[in-house]
Amino acid sequence: MDSTKLTTSESVSKKKGKTKNLKRKPKPGKAPVEKMDQAESEVTEEKPVSGACFPPTFSMSDIKNKQRRHSMFLKLKEQKRKQKLELKKKRKKERKALGDKAPPKEVPKTIENQRIYDETTVNPEDEEVAFDEGTDEFSAYFNRLINPKVLITTSDRPRGRTVRFCDQLATVIPHSHVYYRRGLALKRVIPQCVSRGFTYLIVINEDRKVPNGLVLCHLPDGPTAHFKLSSVRLRKEMKRKGKSPTEHVPEVILNNFSTRLGHSIGRLFAALFPHDPQFVGRQVATFHNQRDFIFFRFHRYIFKNEKRVGIQELGPRFTLKLRSLQKGTFDSKFGEYEWVHKRHEMDSCRRKFHL
User: Fold this and answer.
1) CA-to-CA separations, 170 to 178, 189, 192, 309, in angstroms, rounded
2) Tell me, what's the pLDDT at 126?
3) How far is Cα of residue 111 from the mean position of the Cα atoms in its chain?
4) What is the largest CA-CA distance in the chain?
5) Percent of the chain, pLDDT > 70?
6) What are phi and psi of 244, to 5 degrees?
7) Which of 125, 126, 132, 149 is nearest to 267 (CA)?
8) Global pTM?
């Protein structure tokens, strides 16, 4: 029994020795160690280059696997974000080191500051503009000869969302009344409005139960503006909304209506509201023009203390896009159009705006 044990132990030790010798065979001298050191140094030198950016000839379209392509895209996006952040920190350090001698900050390029200059931009001190304002259709309102009275109606058979929008719009515009057309044509509605002393007619159109158009007609002599209506949000759909608006006359703010066309549209909106706002109600209606989109918001001021003032949105909110401006009252067949939206002109130059 002892002899067998010895033989087995010897055989195991011999096998171990063989395996050790096999492992030691590829390392006869010091030359491979030096090669390994060189390879390691090459790897360490190449690491920051590969981690910094992808190869210059790298293209995502060369990767056929969709999942791999998506993961590589995310890596590339993260890499660009880190590079941008490092550059930002570097510039910040340089500006801090230079102090007052630091160069001014670069103004980022936006569509607004790259806008092509429009020759019809209004100068408030221009005599021609002042003469036009004194003789246009809104001169009676701005000379305080008439008070606005607005009729709000809808297209035929309006749905619930359009009806609620009209009701909420009537709480924003003072002295406004909501009536339903019941199949009457606008050519028959307009003379009735004029005979009853209305100065404005607002028609809300809808498509697939959603409000999508607004016709604003100034009475009795026009003009008539047709807008595309979008992004309508009622009070119930808004977060952090305030209480229902009161009957106080709101303040009106018009922003960025700089051209002749924009000036006339701004006066069209201004004539909807009475002259003297009641500041006790702390309510303000804003028409903000940006890239020919008119954003409407209705807020209430909240005075927290003598220095801090906040605003609370009351709703509703919506966005308007001018489609056409027609002289006189609404006439789809024989009306004379002052301005019509042409899509191919807008697509050819994105930096040219009309309002």
Assistant:
1) 7, 19, 20, 27
2) 83
3) 12
4) 130
5) 82
6) -60, 145
7) 132
8) 0.71
